[in-house]
Specification:
Structural class of chain A: mainly alpha
Helix content of chain A: 55-70%
Shape of chain A: globular
Largest sheet of chain A: 3 strands, antiparallel
Distance between the termini of chain A: 56 Å
Oligomer: homodimer
Largest interface: A-B, 35 and 35 residues
Radius of gyration of chain A: 19 Å
Strand order of the largest sheet of chain A: 1-3-2
Strand content of chain A: under 5%
Chain lengths: ~250, ~250
DNA sequence: ATCCATATTTTGTTCGAACATCCTTGCGAT
DNA sequence: ATCGCAAGGATGTTCGAACAAAATATGGAT
């Protein structure tokens, strides 16, 4: 087996449009761009150092990703957050992820098992950020967390299901990161979450579908409750009527 | 209070980008643009009578819709069809649609019932096209068929689920229309399909979730089988290796 | 002071041209 | 004859400017 060709420094065959799409997507999910915020071309152009053409391309894709909204002649805005969307999102995510996990358990091979253990290990070795200010640590943790959850369902053998789970996961992350200011809110909670990660991995590899899906559902339910609790608090505190939750 | 401003003839606040997106989407789903086909800008620009800027915008969105593929510096192509994708698509569509139908039955009100009956009536009154050449009739039938199936699940109260069902439905339509040359292949089949439409509507309105989902699943299963049978035939006949089914 | 109409500015939209990359063609060497 | 390389053409990408629509500011009348 050969090593990587020394260095893939800048991806060949990439375009500005692709790059800016990825960067905007990251910033959207990370909450760096605030929900409801207008995305003005000149402003973005200056901030990201690209022209308008690639920007339009990226924003168009993000519309179909449901991460930004578009109104003709009135420009693009960051997709708002709303409690009803959060509920919908989470319910479906639980259902689809459990479905995918079930399939994964039925079809996964040794590589799948190995990947789960690897992802879990990496996640557990990542320090939890103490505040949202510590952007680098948050990014790292979120990435590994995502990767762990992805590894669980990766063997479900359904690209469409994976795609939908990914979309829902991305959107949920938006809520989580918009809302959670301190992760160390409760030492007990953190311990429980870590325990759930470990147990769901264990059950999955033991091919115990019932147990694995039950724990996963419980894990999601727990996250949702925390997010919803914080969401209500946060939206109360900045009740400046930011066009949230509206019809 | 004033009346509507006489007439909303052409949608206000529309842009070329939006329009061309809708047109391309239609043509993609209808199979007017063939799977694997390269989408050259100059060609499209001439065919649709718009500049490159709106085209790029539309194509970008269609990438996120999974209807076209994009490779940096190598342009856009119509997303290919493949047997494995078809299987994946159909399995998930059945699952999600039945799920949505179940929720709809639990939450639907009288308007939901009325809409189902209206959509069913319109569908039954639409003549079946005798060949794919009769584009207008095919379009009309497909639209009403879609609308009927949408009406069944419309009350599921989950925008995300509806969105996913819609995406899967659109993609399945692509296969159906690419593959079915004559609908009048079997008089018995047609009769059965019509019967299924009628029965699923009836069961839904009677709030018999078990029966409704069973029939809907059966209905999908039947369509899938027809499409797959034709798919194999069609791809055998034009086995010029059109980059199908690849990894 | 408020309201409405108009002027101005800001912002989004579209086009055409310049630029970069990829693909094909044609030539020459092995 | 085949392979590799170079030149040319085709195609995708990006930018800047012209255009159009919307939002904002201005000024006058009630």
């Amino acid at each position: 087996m050969s090593l990587q060709p020394v260095a893939p420094p800048d991806d060949e065959s990439t375009t500005l449009g692709i790059e800016i799409y990825a960067r905007l997507r990251r910033d959207l999910i990370a909450g760096h761009l605030k929900p409801g915020e207008r995305l003005r071309f000149r402003q973005l152009s200056a901030a990201y150092g690209v022209g308008i053409a690639p920007l339009r391309e990226a924003l168009s894709r993000l519309v179909s990703d449901q991460l930004v909204r578009f109104e003709g002649h009135r420009g693009y805005t960051v997709a708002p957050l709303s409690l009803s969307d959060l509920h919908d999102l989470c319910a479906l995510r639980t259902e689809l992820s459990c479905n995918a996990l079930r399939r994964s358990i039925a079809r996964g091979d040794e590589d799948w098992e190995a990947e789960i253990l690897a992802a879990l290990h990496r996640l557990e070795r990542t320090p939890l950020p103490h505040s949202v200010e510590d952007r680098k640590t948050v990014d790292e943790w979120e990435q590994r967390h995502d990767r762990f959850h992805y590894s669980l369902i990766a063997a479900c053998d359904s690209p469409w299901l994976l795609h939908f789970c990914g979309a829902l996961s991305d959107h949920f992350q938006r809520y989580r990161r918009a809302v959670i200011v301190v992760t160390s809110s409760s030492e007990a909670l953190l311990k429980r979450v870590r325990e759930q990660h470990r147990t769901v991995a264990e059950a999955a590899i033991a091919r115990d579908a019932e147990r694995a899906t039950a724990i996963l559902a419980e894990h999601f339910q727990g996250s949702v409750e925390v997010v919803i609790r914080n969401y209500e608090e946060v939206s109360r505190s900045l009740s400046a009527g930011n066009g949230d939750d509206a019809p």
